[in-house]
Every structure is written in structure tokens, then in C-alpha cells.
Design brief:
The complex is a heterodimer of chains A (202) and B (106). With 202 residues, chain A is an all-alpha fold. Chain A has nine helices and two strands. Chain A is elongated and about 75 Å long. At the A-B interface, α2 and α4 of A face α2, α3 and α4 of B.
Chain lengths: 202, 106
């Protein structure tokens, strides 16, 4: 592998490992590591592979200052109830919301995302679909056909492949959001790494 | 290297002079047993910056793109001074406790 490819590959792995970081911090980290690699290459004292080995595994870099913790019952319940609780008379969703906002494991942008993704996400699409299916059935039942009727009319509804496509599209975003919330809740700041004496803030 | 000590070692490297990331990592790496995985210094620097212990300044470089220099802030200087005092005290205490035992096993 050429050095350019080697460096690009390392940075790509770092970006992937840091995906759960807040955007600005991830940007800062990848910029600094990229600058480090560029400086080392300009100095030319060591082969690039050695420089990257010294930097260490991108996963370790991205995990610095964080520890992986198991999800609490509260977080598990929130992640399940947020996308699905709406179908338990909406009350399940509201309970999910309360759990989400009460949890210290998420910060407000994540909480906002978790709040918005059900009502503005696939719920509308799904209800549209269910409504469409009912209309379809009603149409079919309502249209009397004689024995000679060879009409292949779909009853004015959507073609089946489109319904399937919408259904798939409807389930991808909540799955993605749920995965994101789990990722964010699993990585928490490592308290043991804080400096012993915090400076008094002015 | 105990993880809790590394932040202070980074602050100490910046006591007398500002340094850019690569330079700082090189300097820390030259001290024995200081860092495993040099890359982990960068998230640490980011945290020290967010805590207001270090500041950053972009400066033109004679060769290549501008460099981001890190320097101690007043809060950083205070934190380093506090740590130095605590560390010296702790080291002396531990030395006192270890001292007699060392004599038993020459």
C-alpha cells in the first residue's frame, strides 16, 4: 500500500471509530491526527507504518476518556418504547420520552433527536400506509365484478412494490436512531480520568 | 503510566513554552514509559482545552500548513502548581513508608 493510501485508510478508521462523538470534537480529533501524520511524514524520520503504530489503534484513540458501560434498564426501556410505545395507545411513547429525558446518559441533542423521530418519522408514513390498505380493501369489496370480469385493477391503491419500499424506508430511520441512542448511552465520560484538582471557574 | 497523571505531565510540558501537537507528542514520547498509543494525547488535549487549562493558537509554519499551538492558561498554571504541591507531598509520604522496608532487603 502506498503511504497516501495507508494514511487515508488510518484516518477513515479513526472517523468510523469516532462516529459517536459530538461532531465538532470528532472534527478536531481527526484534524489533529491528520496534522500529526503530515508532520511526521514531512519530518521523514520514520516509516509511516511505524508512525501509525505509535499513534495506536484508532479505536483506542476514539475511546480515550470514555468507558464502555452496560445500558441501564431505563435506557433499554426508553430505546424500546420510543419507536414502539406509540402503538400502545401513545402512552408507551410518553413513558419512553420521560425515561429519555430523565436519563443522565444522553445529552440534549440526543434527547431532542429521540423525541422527534417517532412523531415526525415513520409514524406518519405507517398510518398513511394502513389507511391506504383499508381504502384498498374497501375498494375491492365495493367493486362488484361479474364472472367475466378480468379487470386487473389495483383498486386505485399503491402498487405492492411501492408499499414494501415505503415500509422498508419507514423502518430504517427508527432502527438507525435507536442504534445511535444505544451507542451514545454506552460511552460515558471516565470519571477516574478527571484531573485531581479541578480549577475554580472564573 | 497512571492515567490520572498524564494530564499533568502534558501541562508540565507546556509550562515554559507553547508547543504544537506533534512536537508535544514527540517530547512526551522521549520520556520513558510515558505514553502508550501517542494518539490518545489528542483527545486529552481537547479535554484540557474544554476545561480551560490550555489554550490554542494557530501560527504560520515556515514549512507546510499552519500549526495549532497549545499553551497553558492561568487556570492551567494554577492546576499544575496545585498538583506539583500535592504530588511532592504524596511522594515524600510514600518514600517515608517505603524507606525502612528497603533497608530490610538490600
Amino acid at each position: 500500500m502506498t503511504d497516501d493510501r495507508l494514511a487515508a485508510d488510518y484516518l477513515r478508521r479513526l472517523r468510523r471509530a469516532a462516529r459517536a462523538m459530538p461532531r465538532a470534537r470528532r472534527r478536531e480529533l481527526t484534524d489533529e491526527i491528520a496534522a500529526h501524520i503530515a508532520e511526521a511524514r514531512a519530518a521523514g524520520e520514520q516509516p509511516l507504518q511505524r508512525v501509525l503504530d505509535d499513534l495506536g489503534d484508532p479505536k483506542d484513540i476514539a475511546a480515550t476518556g470514555r468507558v464502555r458501560r452496560r445500558l441501564g434498564l431505563q435506557e433499554v426501556a426508553a430505546v424500546i418504547l420510543l419507536p414502539l410505545g406509540g402503538f400502545i395507545f401513545v402512552a408507551g411513547w410518553i413513558v419512553g420520552l420521560i425515561l429519555l429525558w430523565a436519563s443522565p446518559r444522553w445529552r440534549w441533542p440526543d434527547k431532542l433527536l429521540g423525541t422527534l423521530f417517532w412523531p415526525f418519522g415513520y409514524a406518519g408514513v405507517l398510518y398513511g400506509l394502513v389507511g391506504g390498505a383499508f381504502a384498498n380493501a374497501a375498494n375491492n369489496a365495493g367493486s362488484f365484478c361479474g364472472n367475466g370480469c378480468t379487470s386487473t385493477s389495483q383498486g386505485g391503491g399503491m402498487p405492492t412494490w411501492l408499499e414494501v419500499l415505503i415500509l422498508v424506508a419507514a423502518f430504517v430511520p427508527p432502527a438507525a436512531v435507536a442504534t445511535w441512542l444505544v451507542l451514545r448511552a454506552r460511552w460515558v465520560p471516565d470519571q477516574t480520568e478527571q484531573p485531581i484538582s479541578e480549577p475554580a471557574r472564573a | 503510566m497512571r492515567r490520572g497523571l498524564l494530564p499533568y505531565c502534558v501541562l508540565a510540558m507546556l509550562r515554559d513554552t507553547e508547543r504544537y501537537g506533534f512536537e508535544l507528542v514527540q517530547a512526551l514520547g522521549s520520556v520513558d514509559g510515558m505514553v502508550t498509543g501517542q494518539g490518545t494525547i489528542y483527545p486529552l488535549l481537547s479535554r484540557l482545552r474544554r476545561q480551560g487549562l490550555v489554550g490554542t493558537t494557530w501560527r504560520e509554519s515556515t514549512a507546510g500548513p499552519p500549526r495549532r499551538y497549545y499553551q497553558l492558561t492561568e487556570a492551567g498554571r494554577t492546576a499544575l502548581a496545585d498538583f506539583t504541591r500535592d504530588w511532592t507531598q504524596l511522594r515524600d509520604s510514600v518514600d517515608t513508608l517505603l524507606g525502612p522496608q528497603e533497608k530490610d532487603t538490600p
